[in-house]
Write a structure and sequence with these properties.
By secondary structure, the protein is an alpha/beta fold. It has 13 helices and 10 strands. It has helices spanning 19-23, 49-59, 76-108, 127-133, 159-179, 184-194, 198-207, 231-234, 266-270, 273-282, 302-311, 324-328, 354-363, and strands spanning 117-121, 139-144, 210-220, 226-229, 240-248, 254-261, 285-289, 312-318, 333-339, 382-388. It has a 10-stranded mixed beta sheet with strand order 4-3-5-6-2-1-7-8-10-9, sandwiched between helices.
Length: 395
Amino acid sequence: MKTKFGFLFILFASACTTRQEQASSTTDSAAASLVVEKPVVVDTVKKDKALDALGRFIAGIDQIDSNAYTSLQKEVAWQTFKSSTDSSWNKLFTERLSKMQSWQAEHFSSSINDSLKVFYPFSGPDFLHAYYLYPTAHEFVLVALEPIQEAISLDALDAKSRDNFLDSLSHSLKSSFKKSFFETINMKEDLKSVKGVLPLLYLLIERSGHELLQQQFVSINPDGSATETTFDGLYKQKIPAVRLKFRDLETREISQLYYININVLSGELKSRPGFEKFLNQKKPFNTFIKSASYLMHRPTFQEIRRLIMDNSVSIFQDDTGIPYADFKRKLDWTMEFYGEYTKPIKLFEVRYQPDLDSAYKSSHPQLLPFSIGYHYKNSKASYMLARKGSVKLTK
């Protein structure tokens, strides 16, 4: 298995370092085993240099060559933004990402088939934590309510407008960097200023050691296929999405990310059958769930719960995801527990799961060296790994 060590914040700049310097399954059905080989990723995607230049500017990373943003890097607002983001990213990597990286390599990767696609519902634009848990995946599917808008060409704005944009971008990142999740209430206001999820996705993709190659607005069709469309036509479709392709700067491997803007209430999904068919075409996949507001504990979200359990070979989630009782009722799931289960935060205290508490107490789980999710303040992260059937790993 290839382990990626985060190639971080000053990429191809004067302080450029390597990842090593900074960081020093499929399932068997009841009848048969399904083995998925690691895909061969061919470097055939033509790079959109303007997209990557915008992404680097938004990420606070120096440009590689001369372009429309080269001179704009001299502005005080961008230099201030770069310095602040470098500092925040360095702290984030030291306190959380490096620990996730080590734990993933030493423990998690051997428990899953980490070459599979990753499904991340209720994600917002949080590519970051999915990537550090599944660094060898080549496709990520993020699903959330936050809107898709066309990214602003910052070189066309006046200096004051760029300053305001960067200030709003910094504010929108504070929650994710500090707490590991985007707060829905705050995101509504922040995304008005930064124009949707794309700037945040650009920043997190670039900062995690990648270059942006290509962006396409797509609609998910009733048969589950994805058709490229213009932004003007995007929200005329029932299931709007954006597809980003990006390349690892160290390994040169190409990956892609779908961000799908859809409400996953059961009634909404039933009126949009293309979403289920789209997921069926991606299976088998690994699912990651965190900070999901316990929505899948409600009967109105039973469809997304079913889709996840039907199509996933592994589900790595905190207690805000699928209720533990759902796994107990099915004989084809095995469970592993990590961290320390504590009662939900006050906002969700009615979602306490006594049976999950008992399972933790009886299993004596391995503690996690990092904390992500609602208990970020007290480091009481609790995660469970659900695996379907007897898992056969192919590395």
